Amino acid sequence: MKKRGKGIACIFYGTGYGNGFPDVSRAYAELQPDGKVAIYTGATEVGQGAKTALSQIPAEVLGLTVDDIIFINEDTSITPDAGTAAATRQTYNTGNAIKMAAEELKKELINIAVKELGLNSDAGLEMKDGKIYLKILPDKCITLAQIAAKQSEPLRTFATFTAQTVQIDPETGQGAPYWPYTFSACAVEVEVDTETGQVEIIKAAHAQDVGRAINPKMIEGQMEGGFAMAMGYVLYEDLGLENGRIWNNKLSTYIIPTAMDMPEIQNIIVEDPESTAPYGAKGIGEPVMIPVGPAILNAIYDAVGVRMTEIPVTPMKLLQAIREKEKQGA
Amino acid sequence: MKKISLTVNGKLYQVEVEEDMRLLDLLRDKLGFTGVKEGCSEGECGACSVIMDGKLVTSCLIMAFQAEGKEIITIEGLQKEDGTLHPIQQAFLEEGAVQCGFCTPAMVLAAKALLDKNPHPTDEEIKEGISGNLCRCTGYAKIVSSVKKAAEYLNKGGK
Ligand code: FES
Ligand code: FES
After folding, report:
1. CA-nearest residue, atom 4 of ligand 2
2. Nearest residue of A to residue B138, measured between CA atoms
3. Between A and B, how many CB-CB pairs are < 8 A?
């Protein structure tokens, strides 16, 4: 018999290293001869979209397009340390460092513009499309390339951002170990085949608090990827670890989801800007995965009335649990 | 050693290959088509897929000498000479279907193999068409929508 059930789960997740551990990101912003701006930072791109999001932030600060940002990362001989691409921390931490370096550069550029244009103050100066100009008299204008040409060495600014985290009280376990937190929720509908123990996900909705969505499409991609990964984790993926040996060490036995396994997922991006974050944006890399598992397990419970306490919920394990429950009921 | 000739991305190659060499190694190591990726080496992940005589095949399971006289397309053969992306590549870019990128070259080829045969696939047919290619990052949704978009571009006569 096929039985359907629905389940929800929600979670909160502290991003960054947390618990008082120094969580530091650094970045340079440097004016290029052609008026573009180079960002140097150690942040690593592993497919999460760091290069894109971390280029959008300085572009916004400097009134440039993303194409005018030259993003230089990962090369440790020329970039300052920005910590690991881990703990869902790059958008928030390195994003903050880059934003600060870009703001510093903007300040210097404006100061130079005031002098070069012979103005009394920086009031009413705008910076946009590679130019600094006076809003009330746009002819009073200097391009970033012109400013670059006047420098004897490249104009470069540096910024460090250190996240605020406090070690928890070891005795009471109280404190503020992380900042910021992010929140996610997931709802799924499953269909359980009580003859085979197979679980199929029919439909899903997935909501993620992002602070501010710097790149909505990439956020959706992370949410869908996190969903798939969690779904595999909860329903298929079994390392088969026995006495230090992994039995399922191949993709022929360690089964991960294919396109055919994926249900329709409705993504809901929740924006609630975080005051300490770059333009309010928080990281979402890890949290997108977390509520999916418990939501599936709850849906299985709703469908067939058994609480699965071990993952993956393989057909064999689920059948066993269903049979046991039937026995108890009989 | 065996001498074979094959066409890769429209160019004829004559190469000496060892009997136990896989097509994957010939393409990557001898001919330099590093867009062909090695994932599992056992025909499960699809990362090594190339199009051989119009069919998507896993190059880790094919011996190099079996490619004698065949026509092969790798990801390097898709973009035009002037650097314009193939409509499928363009669609992947626009839809954000690429994260780490490891599965991408083969995914694009899987999409091409599908669309060459079936220019108007349904979502289900697309999912089936790429189901031999594993992706650990995207959850496939953006890949499916890219293939849909690519189909539109191609049906409008290329972009
Ligand atoms: S490397 Fe050939 S299918 Fe995985
Ligand atoms: S984008 Fe990373 S495996 Fe597909």
Report:
1. B135
2. A225
3. 80
Closest CA to A28 of A133, A127, A148, A160: A160
Q: Under an 8 A CB cutoff, do A252 and B42 touch? A: yes
The strand pair at A264-271 and A199-211 is best described as: parallel
At A329 the pLDDT is: 82
Q: Domain A2-14+181-329: which topology?
A: Aldehyde Oxidoreductase; domain 4 (3.30.365)
Domains present along chain B, CATH in parentheses: 2-77 (3.10.20.30), 87-155 (1.10.150.120)
pLDDT higher than 90, residue B159: no
Per-residue pLDDT tens over the stretch A148-194: 999 999 999 999 999 999 999 999 999 989 999 999 999 999 999 99
| CB-based contact A47 B96, cutoff 8 Å | no
Ligand 2 mutation pick, B93, B103, B109, B140, max ligand atoms within 8 A of CB: B103
Helix ranges (H only) for B11-131 are 23-25, 87-95, 104-117, 123-129
What is the ipTM for the molecules in this complex? 0.95
Measured distance CA(A246)–CA(A258) in Å, rounded:
22
Mean pLDDT for all residues in chain A = 97
Which one of the listed residues A74, A126, A191, A286 is annotated catalytic? A286
